[in-house]
Amino acid sequence: MVTSTLLKRRGVLGVAIFLVAVTGCRDFAAAYDKCLTEQTCYLPDGGLLQLDGGGEDDGGTPDSGAADSGTADSGTADSGTADSGTADSGTADSGTADSGTADSGTADSGMDAGGMDAGGMDAGGMDAGGMDDGGMDDGGQSDGGPSTNCDGGLAVCTSFDAVEIVVREFSVCSSGLCLRQEYALSGPYEFQGLWGSGPKDVFLAARARPGFEAPAQMVRFSEDGFSAMTVDLPGFQPFRLHGTGSDNVWAISEAPASGPCWLGDEHLTGPYASPLLHCPSPLFRFDGQQWAPVGYATNGWTTIQPPALFTGLDSTWVASNGQGLLRWTGALWQLEPVSLGTVSPLSALWGDTSGPRIGVGNGSLPLAGFQPPAPWADWIGSPLLESGRFVAIAGPDEEHLYAATASEVLRWVQGGGWQAEFTVPYFSGPSPAVQDIWVSGDGNDVWVTLGTDYVLRKHDGAWSVLQLPVEPGFSALQVEGFDTPAGDLWITGTQSHGWFFGTIAYRYERQDP
Fold first, then answer.
1. Is the bond leading into 345 cis (omega within 30 degrees of zero)?
2. CB 218 within 8 A of CB 229
3. Tell me, what's the pLDDT at 418?
4. 10: buried, middle or exposed (CB in 10 Å: 19+, 13-18, 0-12)?
5. Interval 67-82: pLDDT, tens
6. Which residues in 321-416 belong to E strands, given as ranges?
7. What is the DSSP string of 157-186?
8. What predicted TM-score, i.e. pTM, was given to this entire model?
9. How far apart are the first and last CA of the chain?
10. Closest Cα to residue 10, out of 123, 168, 128, 129?
11. Nearest-CA neighbor of 159 among 1, 24, 19?
């Protein structure tokens, strides 16, 4: 099921809050009612959690947010404005998705668009606005109601009650960045997919965190602002995005899709013909209108091995579990043999518009089977790394190409192979580990996220460690930039503070881009 909502910016400082009711439980309404009436919630291991009375409700109907610890909110009550109170017809829709894309994401089943009528959920499942001007909830305490902090072992089920969306605009500059916009989702999500065809066409994919069951959230930024879409397709939990335009965006999960493979009964001819191997697909494609799974059939005993993904103008490539890559022909995945050796499994692919040219994993290698350009003909240097396997690779061309392990950033030197550039330093707080890299078109600006609120920047040839202008508890995951005069830069990550957990996308402008 797919639900889309458009958020438009209004004024210099705009705040927009939307509620999308979602659930991964088979019988959420029953579990929710039981939680409210008996003040108990089921734990993932089958046990029961006894809840305290929490805070005051909004006019008689308990909120749906996490239970209070007995501490009242900051003093600002929820809006208390119930929705229309008019339930749907109570008749579930047919359950048949149209054109491969499911519908709104919430079965009718007597619930209105807010998930429960008559104020059954407060504004987004959290207290008024969910965040104060500083980006956090008021004092870190949620309103009364069933807890959904599954990481702490407290849950109605391995799901969540609601998604709260907050969009804000800023004019704050610090650490070489000027914050312009913030897009936040509360709930068990993490923005792991980030890709844009341009500064006014950016896609963000929020997958459910490990251990949770929730449909993925797709967010798109354009000239009209942000649009949010719940994509409830089997196996759709995007980990990486790549594409060539707004009508050709691909997403891949972090792990192979679950379920057995099977041999097809296609009629094949030829001396080396064999039945096609069909497997659940971890790949999905956006055609400009909707997301849909990409059929998964190969002509050999090979399967797709996420998360390596590369999309060119004419085709898309992914890594296989064998010695090679798989290329999408428009009908099936064709094996293109490459000797990956000890480099496999691949974690990322890099190339130009014609196709992938380098694969990285336990080491790196040129994909000469596809593109054997002269600069890579004299590939030298050990393909293996002492600091661990590669986790990311980025650059506009081979003259400004960077890759990284979790603890080290390297640069490709023609005629010299990979050369260590910068070792990730240790500092107080969570242990840093490289997550992603972005390099400007002229190679003068390099940004590296570390899974903390610190990032690395190489500017004018010098490396520095910067603390992002964000609230404490932020962990930067993905980074994407654009060579605009303002130096647009997107950084996504998760935010954990008190009872609040969510995922946030920041849009910055780089100072001295």
1. yes
2. yes
3. 87
4. exposed
5. 344 443 444 444 444 4
6. 324-328, 333-337, 348-352, 355-360, 364-366, 392-394, 402-404, 408-413
7. SSS-SEEEEEEEEEEEEETTEEEEEEEEEE
8. 0.69
9. 41
10. 168
11. 24
Q: Which residues contact 44 (CB under 8 A, 6 or more apart)?
A: 150, 153, 155, 157, 158, 211
Residues 103-131 have a mean pLDDT of 36
Give a three-class secondary structure readout of 425-463: CCCCCCCCCCCEEEECCCCCEEEEECCCCEEEEEECCEE
Tell me the per-residue pLDDT of 403-447, one tens digit each, with 9 for 90 and over.
999 999 999 987 778 889 999 998 877 899 999 999 999 999 999
Q: Can you tell me the distance from the alpha carbon of 206 to that of 198, in angstroms, rounded to the nearest whole number?
A: 20
Angle ∠(412,418,419) on CA atoms, nearest 5:
95
What are the backbone dihedrals phi and psi of residue 384, each rounded to the nearest 5 degrees, phi first? -100, 155
Residue 14 CA from chain centroid, whole number = 24
Q: How far apart are CA 132 and CA 497, in angstroms?
A: 13
**Taking the CA of residue 79 as centre, how many other CA atoms within 13 Å lie in the half-sphere pointing to its CB?**
14
